[in-house]
Amino acid sequence: MYTNELARQQRAKIRLAIAFAATGVAILIALALVQTFPRPVWLWVLFAAAFAFFEWNTVEVNDKLYASPSVMVIMTAGVVFGPESAVLGCAAMAATALLTADDIRQRRWFQPMVNLGQLVISATVAVGVLVLVMGSDEVTGSNVWRVALASALAAIVYGIVNYQLVLFIVRQVYGQRNLQKWSHMAQLIVPYLGMGFLGGLLGAAYLLVGPATLPLIGIVFFTGYMAFESYAKLREAQLSTLAGFIKALEAKDLYTRGHTERVAYFANMIGEALGYNGTQLEKLRWAALIHDVGKLAVPRELIRKKARLTDAEWEKMQAHSHLVEDLLSDVEFLRPMVDIAANHHIYYDGSGYDGLPDDEEHAPTVEASILSIADAFDAMTSTRSYRLALTQEYAFAELRRCAGTQFDPEVVEVFITVLEASGERYGSPVELSDEEARRRAEHGIGHSHAATESPHMNLNRGTETPSG
After folding, report:
1. CA-CA to 217 of 20 to 30 Å: which in 142, 286, 392, 454?
2. What is the pLDDT of residues 167-194, one digit of tens each?
3. pTM score, two decimals?
4. Neighbours of 101 (CB within 10 A)
C-alpha cells in the first residue's frame, strides 16, 4: 500500500511538473510577442536580482507557509516598467526564482519545474491587474495614490493566485491529510496588502525622482524582509517553547512519548470536522501539546505507579497539576491554550474531578470537550504503566457510554465518524476488558506492546492517573 502511494505521488509529480513548466514557458513566449522587454536592461536585472534574493531567503511564517517582500519588488518593478513592459518584465523576473538553495542541495527537480509555472502565472495575473487598474496614463503627483491602490489590489491577487496554485499542487501530490490550515492569516494578509501599497509608492517615486531613489527602495525592501523574519522568529520561539515542555515531560515519563502528538492530531481532526479555521485549530493543537505539562510537578513515583491511586495521591496529583497551569497562564501566548487544557478536566455535565454539583459556570467550552475526548481515546487505546492498551471498539463504546455526563455527545459522534471515515485504527488488536488489562499490567504481563502515552482517562474517579 505504501509503495502504491509513492508510485501515485511520483506520477502526480511528473504530470504537474510537465504541465506547470510548459505553461510557464508558454506564457513567457506569448508575452514576448505582445510586449517589449523593459529598458534599461540593467534596471530589470537589479529588480530581478532583488526578487530572486528574497525568494531564496523566504522565512516560514506558518506551517509550511513561506513569505518574503518579493511581492513588493514585483509591484515596484511593475510600476517602473510601465504598461508596455510590466507584465513581461515581472513574469520574467518571477522565472529567475524557480530554483532555490534547497533545490540545489537536495537535487530536487519537481519543485523548480512547478515553481516556474506557478510563479510566472501568479506574476502575470497580478501585474495584469495592476496595469488594468493603474491605466496607461503617465505617473504624476496627482495619480500616485491610484497607482498605490492598484498595487495593493494586485498584491492581494498575487497572494491569492499563488496560494491557490500551491494548494492545488500539494493536494494533488500529497493529499488532503498532509495539509494544515494556516493560522493568524489576518496578521499576514495586512502586511502583504501594505507591502503592495508601498511597492506602488516606491515605483511612483522612482518615476518622479529617478535612480536616486534606488538606495531608499532597497532599504524599504530589506525592512519588509526584517518584518517577516521577526514574525517567523517569534513563532519559532513559541514552537520551541512547546517542544521543550514536551521533551521535559517525555524525559520524566516514558509513557508520555507520542501521547501529546496523538492527542493534538485527534483534536485537530475533530476541529476540522467541526469547521474550525486555522487559528482555532492551532489553539486547539497547542492546548493538546501542553495539557499534560502539569505532570512535571508531580512526583515520578505517582506517575509510574502501576496500581490505582489512593485518595491522598489523587489529591496530590491534582494540586501539582493545577499549580503548573497557574504558572503557565502567566505566559501571554499560552494563556488561551492553558484555559482549554485546564478546563478539559471538567465534565460535560458541569462536574469534575471532585464530583462538583452541576453548575453552569463549570461547563467546559467546546474546545475543552474536544481535548477531553481526544485525550480519553488515546488513554484507552495506548499502553500505560498500569494498564495495557484497549481496542478501538472498546474505546468508542466507553466514549458513548459516558456521553452526556463526562463527554459532549455531539463531539463524541463527530470524532467516531471522522476517525472511522479515515480508515485509521488505534489500540490493541486483542479484546481485553478494562479490569483484565489492568490486572495484566499490574502483574507485569503482556508488556510487549510498544504503544506509549500519558494517562488521563477519568471514566471512574480514582481508577486512572490524571494528567496535568
Report:
1. 142
2. 888 878 876 555 667 777 777 778 878 8
3. 0.72
4. 9
Residue in the block written with cell 474531578: 353
402, burial (CB in 10 Å: exposed 0-12, middle 13-18, buried 19+): buried
As a CATH number, domain 253-442 is 1.10.3210.10
Q: SS in 3 state form for 127-175?
A: HHHHHHHHCCCCCCCCCHHHHHHHHHHHHHHHHHHHHHHHHHHHHHHHC
Neighbour-count burial of 107, counting CB atoms closer than 10 A to its CB (0-12 exposed, 13-18 middle, 19+ buried): exposed
Kindly give, in sequence order, each residue whose CB lies less than 8 Å from that of residue 366, ignoring residues fewer than 6 positions away: 274, 408, 411
Q: Cell 498605490 identifies what position?
A: 148
The amino acid that residue 444 corresponds to is G
Handedness of CA 128, 132, 136, 140 (dihedral sign): negative
Nearest 5°: CA angle at 239, between 236 and 244? 120
Residue type, 319: A
Q: pLDDT of 66-125, one tens digit each?
A: 788 899 999 999 999 999 999 999 999 999 988 877 778 888 888 889 999 999 999 999
